[in-house]
Design a protein that fits this description.
Oligomer: single chain
Strand order of the largest sheet: 3-4-5-9-8-7-6
Structural class: alpha+beta
Radius of gyration: 21 Å
Shape: globular
CATH architecture of the largest domain: 2-Layer Sandwich
Number of strands: 14
Helix content: 25-40%
Largest sheet: 7 strands, mixed
CATH class of the largest domain: Alpha Beta
């Protein structure tokens, strides 16, 4: 169905006969695929007798060749899928199947996209960027300490380069614009943490998502299109993001997060704010001071500086902040 959609993405009319000839299938097969595009992906298709079929509006689909050309310096193979449960899950399956890293998987749609702490991630078709990178890590887990913060920094710098100058960071892995979430990071591990393992770097960016596509997001959010007032070419964005990511990952693996801490703090949005840090049923109240060289969040708790780290922690602003 993705090949059919590529033929229709220009928004012009195409006859069933021409579409069938291009794909080497019958007109009835084209009709079934069109029904699938509508039912599975929610894509509106106009059907006009004598003229053929066209999309309600043009779209630009992700193209692995374009993205690989934009990131040739990295040499990362790129795969684009029409729909998948989650790009992170697909990368883990490919690693389990013996696929060597690094490689990148992107999808037009996720049916079970997820964020930190088991939260779902709204993933409408062909609207946003759902991207996962597989990396091999040799020599233990110390190299990936605070890696999610470094990835968030690469995402924020990419958005700034696209014109979102106010893009900033919320510990540990959210990117916000004007207090609204626009991107998030999810890291997952595979293999032996004490020896050779793989880390899956998952990134979700709200690119062209409109209010009706949000799928009931339970927190303030925005998208690049809402902020900039124009649709974004996701292929060029993916290329830019992966190039930024390659540069920041190289610096992290060479110097650790300590070498990036000052830059991260420049984009830290909640420094000096009153916040509540939740770990399970326990809540710690304090004032956000910043992050340390290991990426832990530092709070002033009743006049004492304390550092906290861990994948199950949640930081929220207090009402009086």
């Amino acid at each position: 169905m993705l090949e059919l959609l590529k033929l229709l993405q220009d928004g012009r009319f195409h006859s069933g006969e021409a579409l069938g000839a291009a794909l080497g299938v019958s007109r009835s097969a084209i009709w079934k695929q069109l029904q699938g595009l509508e039912s599975e992906f929610g894509i509106d298709i106009f059907k006009v007798p004598g003229r053929g079929y066209r999309l309600a509006s043009p779209m630009i689909l992700l193209d692995s060749e374009i993205i690989e050309r934009e990131t040739a310096v990295l040499g990362w193979p790129v795969a684009v899928l029409a729909a998948i449960d989650s790009t992170n899950a697909e990368v883990l399956r490919r690693l389990d199947g013996g696929r060597g890293a690094p490689f990148v998987v992107l999808a037009e749609r996720q049916t079970a996209g997820r964020g930190r702490r088991g939260r779902s991630w709204a993933s409408p078709f062909a609207e946003n960027l759902y991207c996962s990178l597989a990396l091999r890590v040799d020599g233990g887990m110390r190299q990936v300490e605070a890696l999610s913060l470094t990835v968030g920094l690469a995402v924020a710098r990419t958005l700034q380069a696209c014109g979102l100058e106010s893009a900033g960071l919320k510990w540990p892995n959210d990117v916000l614009v004007d207090g609204q979430k626009i991107a998030g990071v999810l890291l997952e591990l595979s293999g032996d943490p004490a020896d050779v393992c793989h880390v899956v770097v998952g990134i979700g960016v709200n690119v062209n998502m409109a209010l009706d596509d949000s799928g009931g997001i339970d927190q303030p959010w925005t998208s690049m299109r809402r902020c900039l007032g124009a649709a974004i070419d996701r292929n060029l964005l993916a290329g830019m993001l992966l190039r930024q990511l390659g540069g920041y990952l190289s610096r992290h693996l060479q110097h650790g997060f300590a070498g990036l801490r000052d830059e991260w703090e420049l984009l830290h949005l909640w420094r000096g704010r009153s916040a509540a840090l939740t770990a399970g049923d326990h809540v710690t109240l304090g004032v956000v001071l910043g992050v340390d060289e290991r990426g832990a969040i530092c709070l002033n708790v009743d006049g004492v500086e304390r550092a906290f780290s861990g994948g199950e922690l949640s930081l929220r602003l207090r009402d009086d902040s």
